[in-house]
Design brief:
about 650 residues; mainly alpha; two-stranded antiparallel ribbon; about 35% helix; about 5% strand; globular
Length: about 650
């Protein structure tokens, strides 16, 4: 049944907050409260309890603009913010200042254990056997998902598969299990959960686990496990347990031998997940035939160099608008691409506001404006494709690199540079720049034309705003709905809280393509990349496009970079591919010469390449996240990550 409305996933705790409070990761559930027996009297009580088990889905989601995952080469924040993503990119986290998701995830695993334990002896009024099986499956799914979130951040982790008794001695706490053993544990639980979960949910339960979600997450788990970091290239050969053993693996924590069958296993899981999602799960790539862009009631967006009065130009602009709907629409509006999404609340629901430029609408002698938090790098700009579907540097029909930062000579917008014209639709759906219309209605029903060379508008001016400004000369509009409008009478706006995609259908296509590429099966890899490229409005790949300069895997990885840009994937991708040293080190993030050019600069002064002046660095230890030192101290069998 297709949901007709989207309901926010309830994540408030049904039980006293102390149930989720913990200092040590295994002390996840204190002694039972006197009221816990009352939590399973009726089916509605059980629903409330299982909903509370989802808390860490939101609290550890990678979507807020400043979280750990947003520390990559995709974008940078202004230097004075000093948020989690900057501290991550600056390599400031350590065992004494660990951050991360350790406590959140293990606490919610413990909450799931409590749910299972109470449900095992409960007989809720109005509950059928199918209901009971589905609730147990949800708990299994969440335990698997939370273990996976830990695995992708911390590598080999302790498996906590039961409620640890309060009397457990520290020397009996589990240590890290072998990476592959944890993978098998997660996959086994996902398989069990999928057998008893529905393929889709109705409107009242949107966001809760389904078999479609379980299969899709399984595909991602196995894709990660087949990748370089965990498939023969782990950089620390001597990292192993000293006093804890994994069944079948001894003290080893990582396999150091390449195993091609891991790719075969990942391929089959992702093929199954994709087929299931498109059939039983009723998922579909958003495309032009969905016409969901008409929901916004906006005119076609301005695109430099594109004549929207021609059929080709009109189709191009319509496609740009369609692409902006992927992250800015509901399922009842036609968005069936999201397999699993989450509604971010409170301070974590700020991505669209954080994207906006400064000085959008003036009212009552003050400004309604954004924070300029998400500043795409030149690496990002240069790795979105041209309109011909090639990298700008490799497209013979694109302007020469030496001319990229010169004027494109557009008669009414001479400030637009050549790098920003003749690009693919996804570029204009996600990026904004000097001379661009940021959004069609944002300025009280009119577009905001970005002006980076005026310090009294969106340009650099530390006297007016020394904390919030675009560091790179680019803005993000991927999270900004085309119908956003700020009112000049009071500065209010009509922002809507759209669900953020934990996983969407496009990722499964990319996962399958990556597996085929890793196995040397280029024709099949192309077959699964091309639906994404067709939807993006760029030419399909052929085997003739595969060269020494752009291998099949290069195409796969870059397509993933563009399609999933800013959605929290890059942090884990560059680690599992072991490509982080190539893009994440000192002096590697560049933008335009915003700070160096000063206030109200000339065109030439602004449009120069400049290294972003922040203390970015990369160290081999950053492949894994550190565990807090108190956890290591309290558990003698728990090994710290290498390099910390």
């Amino acid at each position: 049944m297709k949901p007709t409305t989207i309901k926010k996933l309830f994540v408030g705790s049904l039980l006293p907050l102390s149930i989720l409070a913990s200092c040590d990761y295994l002390d996840v559930v204190p002694p039972e409260q006197a009221t816990t027996a009352d939590t399973m009297k009726d089916a509605s009580d059980v629903e409330g309890f299982i909903n509370s088990c989802y808390q860490a889905v939101e609290s550890t989601a990678p979507f807020p603009y400043a979280t750990y995952e947003n520390s990559t080469d995709e974008y940078v924040l202004p230097p004075l913010w000093n948020h989690e993503c900057q501290q991550t990119a600056w390599n400031l986290y350590s065992s004494t200042n660990a951050g991360g998701y350790w406590d959140n995830l293990y606490n919610c695993i413990g909450h799931c254990h409590m749910f299972e334990n109470i449900l095992a002896t409960a007989h809720p009024n109005g509950a059928t056997e199918e209901d009971m099986a589905a609730w147990r499956a949800e708990a299994k799914f969440l335990k698997a998902f939370y273990h996976f979130r830990l695995l992708e951040m911390y590598g080999p982790i302790p498996i906590v598969d039961y409620r640890v008794p309060q009397s457990t001695m520290p020397e009996d706490f589990p240590g890290r299990s072998h990476f592959d053993y944890v993978v098998d544990y997660i996959v086994n639980y996902l398989d069990q959960a999928a057998a008893d979960l529905p393929a889709a949910r109705g409107s009242g339960d949107w966001g809760r686990a389904t078999s479609t979600i379980a299969k899709a997450i399984k595909g991602r788990v196995l894709l990660y496990a087949a990748s370089d970091l965990w498939n023969g290239k782990f950089p620390y050969n001597d990292w192993r347990n000293s006093n804890y053993e994994t069944p079948g693996y001894g003290t080893e924590l990582v396999s150091h031998t390449y195993d091609p069958t891991k790719w075969e296993r990942a391929l089959q899981a992702n093929l199954e997940a994709l087929q299931y999602a498109e059939n039983e799960g009723e998922r579909k790539l958003i495309d032009m035939d969905d016409d969901i862009q008409t929901l916004y009631g906006v005119d076609l967006p301005y695109i430099p160099g594109v004549d929207t009065t021609t059929p080709e130009g009109k189709e191009f602009a319509e496609r740009v608008l369609m692409l902006r709907t992927i992250l800015n629409s509901f399922e009842n509006g036609g968005n069936r691409e999201i397999i699993w999404g989450v509604f971010m609340q409170g301070d974590r629901n700020r991505n669209n506001f954080a994207c906006w430029p400064k000085r959008i609408v003036q009212y009552n002698n003050q400004w309604s404006e954004g924070w300029c938090a998400i500043n795409p790098t030149l690496y990002t700009v240069e790795h979105f494709y041209t309109k011909d579907g090639k990298l700008p540097e490799q497209d013979p029909n694109f302007s020469d690199k030496s001319q990229w930062l010169t004027s494109a000579n557009i008669s009414d917008r001479p400030e637009v540079i050549k790098l920003n014209v003749n690009r693919e639709p996804r570029f204009y759906a996600a990026m904004s720049f000097d001379g661009d219309d940021y959004s069609p209605l944002i300025k009280d029903g009119q577009p905001l034309r970005v002006n980076l060379r005026d310090g009294n508008q969106q340009g650099y001016n530390p006297d007016l705003f020394n904390r919030d400004y675009t560091v790179t000369g680019y803005f993000c509009k991927k999270y900004c709905s085309p119908n956003i409008q700020i009112n000049s009478s009071n500065g209010g706006d009509n922002r809507t809280n759209y669900p953020m995609p934990i996983i969407r259908l496009a990722e499964l296509y990319l996962n399958v393509a990556e597996c085929y590429a890793a196995l040397g099966r280029n024709a099949e890899a192309i077959q699964y990349l091309n639906p994404i490229r067709r939807r993006a409005g760029i030419p399909e790949l052929t085997e003739a496009d595969i060269t020494d300069d752009m291998t099949m895997m290069d195409w796969v990885r870059n397509e993933r970079f563009v399609e999933l840009w800013g959605e929290g994937h890059r942090f884990y991708d560059v680690r599992r591919w072991m490509t982080a040293p190539e893009t994440m080190g000192a002096n590697m993030r560049e933008g335009l010469n915003v700070e160096g050019a000063g206030v109200s600069p000339s065109f030439e002064a602004l449009n120069q390449r400049a290294v972003v002046n922040q203390q970015f660095q990369w160290a081999t230890s950053m492949y894994l996240w550190p565990i807090a030192s108190n956890e290591i101290y309290n558990n003698p069998r728990l090994l710290q990550a290498p390099g910390y």
